[in-house]
């Protein structure tokens, strides 16, 4: 049985998720592929409208440290290559939904 929600992330030096991918459902449909860094950059240089469009398309990233993830029952580390594959697939799928 597959969980209804999977969260994949790279942690920065402070332990925050940056970037992250979230997939839901049995078909692993991506719902989030975003990073706090890109949202902050858009907010500071693109304005609230651009930030809102980006968040509607790519989801809202978690803010704050990702403490305790290692203690979750199905938590596991994946390779950087696997994360990059998931990130690319999710960004493509979420980018396509805007068309």
Describe the secondary structure blueprint for this structure.
Blueprint: E1 5-11, E2 17-24, E3 29-34, H1 36-45, H2 47-58, H3 80-97
Give structural notes.
- By secondary structure, the chain is α+β, with helices and mostly antiparallel strands.
- It has one domain (5-97).
- Helix content is 40%, strand content 21%.
- The chain has helices at 36-45, 47-58, 80-97, and strands at 5-11, 17-24, 29-34.
- It has a 3-stranded antiparallel sheet.
- The longest helix has 18 residues, at 80-97.
- The termini are far apart.
What labels would you give this structure?
alpha+beta; 99 residues; 40% helix; globular; 21% strand
Concise structural overview:
This protein has 99 residues and is of the alpha+beta class.
Instruction: Categorize the overall geometry.
Output: globular
- What structural class do the secondary elements suggest? alpha+beta
Distance between the termini: 33 Å
Oligomeric organization of the protein chains: single chain
How many discrete structural domains?
A: 1
